Amino acid sequence: MQANPPDLRPDLARARIPADHPGDRRDGQPTIGMVSLGCPKALVDSERILTRLRAEGYAISPDYAGADAVIVNTCGFLDSAKAESLEAIGEALQENGRVIVTGCLGAEPEYITGAHPKVLAVTGPHQYESVLDAVHLAVPPAPDPFIDLLPASGVSLTPRHYSYLKISEGCNHKCKFCIIPDMRGRLVSRPAHAVMREAEKLVAAGVRELLVISQDTSAYGVDRKFAEERGHRAHITDLARDLGSLGAWVRLHYVYPYPHVRDLIPLMADGLVLPYLDIPFQHAHPDVLKRMARPAVAAKTLDEIAAWRAICPEITLRSTFIVGYPGETEAEFQTLLDWLDEAQLDRVGAFQYENVKGARANDLPDHVAPEVKQDRFERFMQKAQAISQAKLAAKVGHRIEVIVDSVDDEGATCRTRADAPEIDGNLFIDEGFQQLAPGDIVTVTVDEAGEYDLWGRL
């Protein structure tokens, strides 16, 4: 079983299914497989489902043959992602035959059953109880409380040394190209004390890096009116400060550039939070942003970026952009290129606009021709690549801190503070790495730089 390739969208994460060793399974133990597609937020949903199933006595299979049934957690953000999800469902049906579908595409059950009428059940995103009910019906639980034990940290689909930490669900924005609010609802923030309790357990279990995710991290706590409960306030600045006190790396994703984001930058300068912001700018021309119905259209983002860098010069900025949005003219696209030249973002991804069923952008006039979108995508990525290469070249000769992700016979694959797992670059060590282990945080000297990756030595 496998997940979508990470190049389908800039924020995709490859799921790692933790296999229960066959010798550890007891006779008659029901076994479930999981295919997890889509973004890190979906990955967290998969982890929660598997944790609940493990608590009920189910074993987890890493392959189709060893599973009594398979759950496919789908992505439905883009038409290409929907196609990937349907393909994964079809593969699971062919290889196993007993398939339960959940996730974002599950919000369109007729779309799924129309293509695959033999699926056992279809549930929508974060409908954990419905997924469990479907599993119980397909493969009845048979727990043994004296044998079936669940790790205190739950089931993780990421390596042990880092973990995604979802702080809210849903989104209050109404961007015309996006249907996430329709699928996942309005913003619902978790209580800050609950987030902290989960983070504390993760760190106690050996997690060295916490990746904070949501649909809109900057808006965390708005729906709770930034209430304080049990000593923790539901505001992103307070939450970041509290998480930073745990001693792990804290990385912030999906941060909209609201004015209060500048309050996070001193925390980065002080070392409490990684100097890294993942901000979905999407475009730079005001007319395109208006047609997108993006929030904070009037924000002077270049001024904000300059202010952030003045406070924390080492800050890394990552973003994603849409090229070929309906009505985008060559002049508007050129504005985006000029903006990128001035902004000098460190990590940049882009994807070509696609219609998504139910999105208001579908009805906009003057859709851009596919060959024009492809040309603009290539020109955009060429510029972004040149900026990345120059920024990485400037790191040669510097000593930096890295976290080790994996070690094999050829070397160690690491990440700097400027690199999130799966979506950014790596730093490779090919000499003297034999004593390193995943999760180690070490200091290296950068010897060589490429377009996206670095090479260094201890």
UniProtKB/TrEMBL annotation:
Domain MTTase N-terminal: 30-140
Reactions this protein catalyses: L-aspartate(89)-[ribosomal protein uS12]-hydrogen + (sulfur carrier)-SH + AH2 + 2 S-adenosyl-L-methionine = 3-methylsulfanyl-L-aspartate(89)-[ribosomal protein uS12]-hydrogen + (sulfur carrier)-H + 5'-deoxyadenosine + L-methionine + A + S-adenosyl-L-homocysteine + 2 H(+)
A Gene Ontology biological process term: tRNA modification
Protein name: Ribosomal protein uS12 methylthiotransferase RimO
Gene Ontology MF terms: 4 iron, 4 sulfur cluster binding; aspartic acid methylthiotransferase activity; metal ion binding; protein methylthiotransferase activity
Organism: Paracoccus siganidrum
Gene expressing this chain: rimO
Enzyme class label: transferase
Cofactor note: Binds 2 [4Fe-4S] clusters. One cluster is coordinated with 3 cysteines and an exchangeable S-adenosyl-L-methionine.
